[in-house]
What does this fold into?
Amino acid sequence: MSQRSRSKVSVFVILSLLLFSLFFVSAPLQAAVKATPPGMINSVLGPISPDKLGISLMHEHFTFAYPGWYADATIAPEDFKAALKINIGVIKTAQKYGIKTIIDVTPNDAGGRNPALYKALAKKTGLNIICATGLYTEHEGAPTYWTTKAVWGMNLPKMMSELFIKEITMGIGKTGVKAGVIKIGSSSPKMTTYETSVHKAAVIAQKSTGVPIITHTDGPLGGVEQAELLIAEGANPKKVMIGHVSNSKDIEYHKAILAKGVYIAFDRIGLDIITPFDVNLKNVTELCKQGYANQIMLSHDTVNVWLGRQTVLPEQFAKAFDNWRIDHISKDFLPALKAQGVTDEQIKTMMVDNPKNLFLGK
Ligand SMILES: [Zn+2]
It folds into this structure.
């Protein structure tokens, strides 16, 4: 073999080895993100079947803070171990009542969304935990990062939807935890321009991934406006849950949202300071009697751990939050509904079937 052909061969060998090693080095990296099989839900520990959800609480928070809490973190840093311990206690209480799934709907720009915590909690307790991607309202979220881009004409719905889709299909940061729902919100009495962008982004992401949209409404209004915009943009109404309708005492408002074909959530049961127990009881009972049980979900919107310094309540409010607990629906609200004539079948519909159907779009 000539000098020249020998060097040709060695270049070939080196190149082949390089390609070969590149393939084997990169293969495990690519394999690390597996596509969620069709029809399955992203739990924080991986895909689960909708049939595995069981009794579900659709709107809770393991840890939460309003944006800006991190500015005070020198005084009150995040304590992962304490959050783990407190939340394990809360989850065990919920499990005593047969709760199988909790959705933590904390959006990206609030404090407290913590995939590592969710994973640890799910592993230690066996609870199904589903977490969210999404952005909060303009006045309670952190819109400035986005709105300063909008000034220069950048396309917010497109940019936001890229974020949501990546967190649903590839995972949140490098945690490997994929979001299972999209969380959005709007201000009262009217949605802002920024929030309109967030809603549009949510629909783009739903069309691409099939994931449900869960909303926050501020005050006693906004649900109809949200449902109309989401549907106009092309969302599947059966994959939309309009949240915090229990902010309103007015059953006609609830029915106006229901007429859009979406799910509604009485998801602040126990926050009696917003709407008293008896008012929620009367409204849910009446809606069940009128045949709406298959569009209603119940949850508490509890926050088990607040990041940052603790809010100290004035004396007169000391008892105001006594019912804001993870077992309040199971222990107090469901028995009260039954006493009003709501059937076991309707309760199963609200607590088991509707959560599953929201993911299935049924
Ligand atoms: Zn919430």
